[in-house]
Each structure stands twice: as C-alpha cells, then as structure tokens.
C-alpha cells in the first residue's frame, strides 16, 4: 500500500506536541520529531522511534492505567526535547551533547516532586491555616487556592520576555494540528487562519486535574492531618489517570455544545500559554508535523 493510500485510509492520526526553544516537538503513537530553527535560520530535525512500555506490557493500555504512563512518558520526552532544542540553539553545532536516560529520569522525577510541592502540598498547608475543618469546604477552598497558584504561575510565565517566543511556538504547534485535523493542506497560509488554542493542550489538562482533585479530596478525607496530606501525594497517579481519560473524552466529543462549554475554561487559560506565531514559527511546526505523519504512516 502506498503512503498516499495509507493517508486516505487513516485521515486523522492522533498527534500531540510541545513547544521547545526555537522549535516544536511533535509526537505520534510510535514516533517523535523535534524541529528547531537555528541562528543561521536553518531548521535542524531530530527523529526518534518511541518505545512505550505499553508495547511490551499490554496491561498498560487499559483505561485509567494508560494515563499514568502517558504522564511520565510525556515528561520524559519533553525533557529530551527541551535539551535538544537548547543544544541546537545555543550549543556548538559541531559537538552535540546528550543526556543519558538516567539523567533524564532524574530530571523528570525532580520536576515532578517540585510540582507536587508547589501545586499540591503548599495549597493544602495554606488551607489548613484557615481552620475550615476537613470536609467539602476545605477541599473546595484548597482547590481554589491550587487553581490560583496555577493562574499566577501561568500569568508570570506569559509576561517573561524570554518565554514569549516559546509561547509563540506553542501557538504554532496548536494551529498546525488544528489545520491538520481540519483536513486542509499544510502550508503557512492555511495554518495561519487556524486558532492557536487546542482542547487537547496540557494547559487544559492541568485545569482538569485541579477540578478532579477537588472531587477526590471531598470524597476521600480523614480527621488526621498527616493522612490527608499523604492523600495529596499518593492519589496523584489516580487523579492524573482520571483527568487523562476526561481529556480524551472531551476530544472525542469536541463538537458537542456541552463539551465545548466544559472545556472553555481550559481554552481560556491557553491565552496565557500561547501567543500568535509568525510565519517562520508556523513553518517549523508544519515541518515537524509532516515529518511525524510520514514516519507514522510508513509504520502502519
């Protein structure tokens, strides 16, 4: 079967992406592509076959388990993408330095626990100072503080001058995927007409996690302070897996008026995490998307 026939047979392959320094990372089920605009204006491309543990252990594909795996695999790929883009942008073009899998894993674990400290433990501690008891009111207040932390973090990042171009590449990534999913020809002129917002974005995922956390901790409680604190850490995989499934459902029924209303807050948050890209950035995103599409279709 030719590549064109495969594309006609499967017109809507699922792709996800991430902005990196001066570039875009695109992922399919089995492949990863990073395209970076170098100072000389050339676009350097890195391709990689993904070896998900779910390919070896089928149980990891089961709903509510696959979300936990997806979280850590996304973090792992993200660290690699950022490091490659930094090396391509600022490093010596004649000497490529790469992180070992162990070093990447350590970075992922450190980043994960830092986020737990900031967005889970700290809101719990601050809410405890208000003497609200341990019921629904406590959980709702804690959730509001957690969302406030998230909004504050996104607002600060969006105002940092050094992050502006990364946010623009994030917008280019979204616009190119929106154009692809609409079935139009992928060129700069077409992609420029599409939104920089996408319902499957990680920003929306973070908001879903915050809301699901309120529901979890309202139901699962304890009079013991340390026990309730431990829940905020132990239940993170469960909360993430439920949030992941909800994100998948929202994408499946994204044309529904009800779903559109439910995902609207997440789309609004993307005003902080994306900026309108220029044509050069869109070109990089298109190149990454076309490359990962070709690799995935070749494997089918």
UniProtKB/TrEMBL annotation:
TM regions (residue ranges): 104-126, 132-156, 205-223, 229-247
Domain of life: Archaea
Organism of origin: miscellaneous Crenarchaeota group-1 archaeon SG8-32-1
Protein name, as recorded: Metal-dependent enzyme
InterPro entries (alphabetical): DUF1385
PANTHER family: MEMBRANE PROTEIN-RELATED (PTHR42867:SF1)
Keywords per UniProt: Membrane, Transmembrane, Transmembrane helix
Lineage: Archaea, Candidatus Bathyarchaeota, MCG-1
């Amino acid at each position: 079967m030719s590549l064109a026939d495969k594309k006609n047979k499967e017109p809507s392959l699922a792709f996800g992406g991430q902005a990196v320094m001066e570039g875009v990372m695109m992922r399919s089920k089995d492949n990863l592509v990073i395209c970076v605009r170098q100072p000389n204006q050339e676009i350097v491309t890195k391709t990689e076959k993904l070896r998900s543990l779910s390919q070896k252990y089928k149980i990891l594909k089961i709903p509510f388990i696959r979300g936990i795996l997806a979280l850590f695999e996304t973090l792992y790929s993200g660290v690699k993408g950022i490091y490659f883009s930094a090396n391509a942008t600022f490093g010596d073009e004649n000497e490529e330095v790469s992180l070992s899998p162990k070093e990447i894993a350590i970075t992922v674990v450190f980043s994960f626990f830092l986020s737990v400290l900031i967005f889970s433990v700290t809101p719990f501690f601050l809410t405890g100072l208000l003497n609200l008891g341990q019921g629904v009111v406590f959980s709702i207040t804690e959730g509001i503080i957690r969302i406030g932390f998230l909004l504050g973090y996104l607002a600060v990042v969006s105002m940092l001058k050094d992050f502006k171009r990364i946010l623009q590449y994030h917008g280019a990534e979204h616009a190119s995927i929106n154009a692809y999913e609409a079935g139009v020809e992928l060129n700069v002129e077409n992609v420029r007409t599409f939104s920089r917002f996408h319902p499957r974005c990680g920003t929306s995922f973070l908001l879903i996690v915050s809301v699901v956390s309120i529901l979890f901790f309202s139901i699962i409680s304890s009079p013991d302070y340390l026990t309730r604190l431990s829940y905020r850490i132990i239940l993170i995989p469960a909360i993430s897996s439920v949030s992941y499934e909800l994100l998948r459902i929202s994408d499946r029924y994204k044309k529904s008026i009800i779903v559109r209303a439910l995902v609207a807050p997440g789309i609004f948050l993307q005003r902080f995490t994306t900026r309108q890209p220029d044509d050069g950035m869109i070109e990089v995103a298109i190149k990454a998307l076309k490359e990962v599409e070709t690799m995935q279709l070749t494997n089918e």
